[in-house]
Amino acid sequence: MRIDRKAPSRAPRPSRRALLAGAGIFSLGFHIPFLARAATRDGAPAAPEVNAWVVVKPDETVVIRVARSEMGQGTLTGLAQLVAEELDCDWARVTTEYPSPGQNLARKRVWGDYSTGGSRGIRDSHEYVRKGGAAARAMLVAAAAKGWGVPAAECRTERGTITHAASGRSTTYGAVAGEAATIEPPKDVALKDPRDWTIAGKPLKRLDTLPKLDGSQVYGIDLKLPGLLNAAIRDCPVTGGGVKSFEAAAVTGMPGVKRVVQVGDSAVAVVADTFWRAKTALDALPIVWDEGPNAKVSSESIAAVLREGLDAEQAFVGNRAGDVAGALKGAAKVVEAVYGVPFQNHATMEPMNATALWTPERCEVWTPTQNGEAALAATADAAGLPATSCEVYKIHLGGGFGRRGATHDWVRQAVLIAREMPGTPVKLIWTREEDMTHGRYHPVTQCRMRAALDTEGNLTGLHMRISGQSILASVAPQRMVEGRDPVTFQGLNPGGPEAAIGYTIPNILVDHAMRNPHILPGFWRGVNLNPNAIYLECFMDELAHATGQDPLAFRLKLMGNHPKHRAVLEAVAERIGWDRKPPEGVFRGICQTMGFGSYVAGAAEVSVSDAGELKIHRIVAATDPGHAVNPQQIDAQVAGSFVYGLSAALYGACTVKDGRIEQTNFDSYPVMRMDAMPAVETILMPSGGFWGGVGEPTIAVAAPAVLNAVFAATGKRVRHLPLKDTDLRRA
After folding, report:
1. Mean pLDDT throughout 513-530?
2. Which GO terms describe its molecular function (predicted)?
3. Taking 70 as the threshold, does the pLDDT of residue 273 lie above it?
4. Which of 12, 107, 308, 372 has the fewest CB atoms inside 10 Å of its own CB, making it the most exposed?
């Protein structure tokens, strides 16, 4: 179906800091079997807040607690819709709040996982948050029924009202909340069939839009506290290097400067009364670095290491079937190509920042984070205090894209600086240059593909050798599987619900020669699905043209066992008009993949002038996420994902010289501008039966759809990104 961007909805202005305080406020919870109940006071329950997800106030305001982070993707609204749906409350009265990770720890992780990444905000928590709403509704109904002396089964709910039709009596959630708080939550609750949804599944307006428009939304970089000082920091420009010396006396007399401190082994910070004064002093501070052996590394030396990996004897296997070597040896035709993607920066609009307040007894941090629990762990470690003596207050993120998830280096720095100023809140803000040159970059990889074709042009064998960086080896080595990084094979797995290949190839081998340069990798939005989709889908296009076949028809022959992959591919082909001649001078490309539990496909229309100037006219994207919680948000996410995916494909490259990242700001690391953005058409086709993500999957089809269209327009294969480095004048 085509998403209606103009669908009406109701949404109040949300309260960011609704607190449990005052008589008559009722906090409802439900039991998650794998989670323990909250602590007790004096041997009695600590109030009816156990597993608290829903708060009903006497004025009928419904506060829904959301543990996941909001960074523009709409998770906050989507999760609230799921809870409100099962609660049967009045959506016009819904607001939200973040429970803190410290509260979660104190209450034995009652809210579960705080991590927000991998498009998992809804798909990994939909069931238990829905149960929270359903349990709350059951308790409210039980309270009303008890007061009336009638069976609860005879009562009905609608928009925050409970009715007993037989007696004509009705009441509101707020009126019975106090009594409901005394009722034991049900152990089992039935969830609604998605076909009966009236709040979830609807294109409701986001709950966080108005504060962003009227300027009342506070981001971490805006935060002000009494007595606040500001810090600017500079880390060694070469990863692995450190501080040799610095001359604090050269800047301590400058206006507003309070302290110059070394932060860890590799950074120096200046604390002042304003950020500008801190930055100005830092710019004037003489620092001598010990850059170490990594200072000799360049993009060229890294590329050489990766090229060596393409021919290495040892590699970790991600997908294997049949006899690839035999298929290649006996092939009527062998096609080979090498592709590559560079380092890429998250480049969030809001640079890394955190405010920390440290005393010998307690440490508190206010920061934008994709994982409050990980931020709390980093805080406790840097503070030298137990986690129970620390707290992190999550703030809406001015962009995350994976940068604010697994690694919290900026939080650690803020706490270390605050330890030098006990009892004084200190806000650390990274400059844009610090943010651009000390990120956690999308891993650099190359991929050589060799395909075996028979005399009829059928694909009989495929060997994909990926050479390059492992994210998990750096970020989460405990998740490695016998030395292998499973994330490397996103979109190329032999099956399963997460990121399976969409083709049946009788002989296939996908392997990874791990080569880890010193530039640190991180979970960059879309992760390894992005390059893998480029590698496979552009090569599929090459094979189709090498055998004189239509690129769509060539793919469909291999997709008989992959109906969901095929469905989205056929949907974009139909919408783009694949079987019809495009306008004069316009050329098309097509692709598909599966990632983050969803099936996606893309088709693009482009033109290339005689001077080699590319114009992307139109992109069509189809997504099957299983269930669609908010179609309007999915539409926005798809459009946003193409901004991100096309920025990377067209411009995004971080190069290394003398061991350091060369790009320091948006002048050297450009992103997509509005005048270059194509029209985006979204096809949402949820087939039910599973829950997939929507924030990241379609990023992966942006580049291959355009690159395949560029070949159709110019006869040139762009195998190494970014595209800006290729002369697109017709071959």
Report:
1. 97
2. oxidoreductase activity
3. yes
4. 308
Residue position matching structure tokens 């035999």? 326
| Cα–Cα distance, 75 to 593 (Å, whole number) | 23
> What is the rounded distance in angstroms from the CA atom of residue 574 to the CA atom of residue 557?
17
Nearest residue to 82 via CA among 162, 200, 184: 200
Which tokens belong to 298?
């360049």
Return the structure tokens found at 285: 């501070």
For domain 47-212, give the fold.
Aldehyde Oxidoreductase; domain 4 (3.30.365)
**Using CA atoms, how far apart are residues 268 and 246, in angstroms rounded to an integer?**
8
CATH number listed for the domain at residues 299-344+441-725: 3.30.365.10
Which of 317, 316, 314, 306 shows the shortest CA–CA distance to 339? Answer: 306
**With 0-12 CB in 10 A as exposed, 13-18 as middle and 19+ as buried, what is 456?**
exposed
Contact 614, 589 (CB under 8 A): no
Domain layout of the chain by residue ranges: 47-212, 299-344+441-725
Peptide bond into 211 cis (omega under 30): no
Closest CA to 143 of 114, 172, 105, 116: 172
Instruction: Answer whether residue 206 shows pLDDT above 60.
Output: yes
- Answer whether 208's CB lies under 8 Å from 217's CB: yes
Is residue 241 within 8 Å of residue 660, measured between CB atoms? no
160 exposure class (CB count in 10 Å sphere: 0-12, 13-18, 19+): buried
Give the up-direction half-sphere exposure of residue 711: CA atoms within 13 A in the CB hemisphere: 21
Q: What single-letter DSSP state applies at residue 47?
A: -
**pLDDT for 724:** 95
For residue 80, what is the enclosing H or E element?
helix 75-87
Is the Cβ–Cβ distance between 270 and 296 less than 8 Å? Answer: no
Are 621 and 602 in contact by the 8 Å Cβ rule? The answer is yes
Q: For tokens 């992760």, name the residue.
A: 527
Question: DSSP string of 384-417?
Answer: TS-GGGEEEEEE--S--TTTTTS--HHHHHHHHH
H helices within 188-248, ranges in order? 209-214
- Lowest pLDDT segment from 204-208, 527-531, 533-537: 204-208
| Residue-by-residue DSSP string for 685-710 | ---SSS----SSTTHHHHHHHHHHHH
C-beta atoms surrounding 7 within 10 Å: 14
47-212 and 299-344+441-725 have identical folds: yes
The 10s digit of each residue's pLDDT in 664-721 is 999 999 999 999 999 999 999 999 999 999 989 999 999 999 999 999 999 999 999 9
Task: Specify whether the CB–CB gap between 468 and 515 falls below 8 A.
Answer: yes
Cα gap 205→77, rounded to integer Å: 8
3 state DSSP class of 296: helix
Antiparallel, parallel or unpaired: β 660-661 and 598-608: unpaired
* Contacts (Cβ under 8 Å, ≥6 apart) of 450: 328, 334, 335, 336, 462, 463
Q: Grade residue 257 by pLDDT with cuts at 50, 70 and 90.
A: very high
Contact 207, 95 (CB under 8 A): yes
**601, pLDDT greater than 70:** yes
List the alpha helices (DSSP H) in 149-295. Answer: 173-180, 209-214, 275-284
- Closest residue by Cα to residue 211 from 11, 365, 55, 65: 11
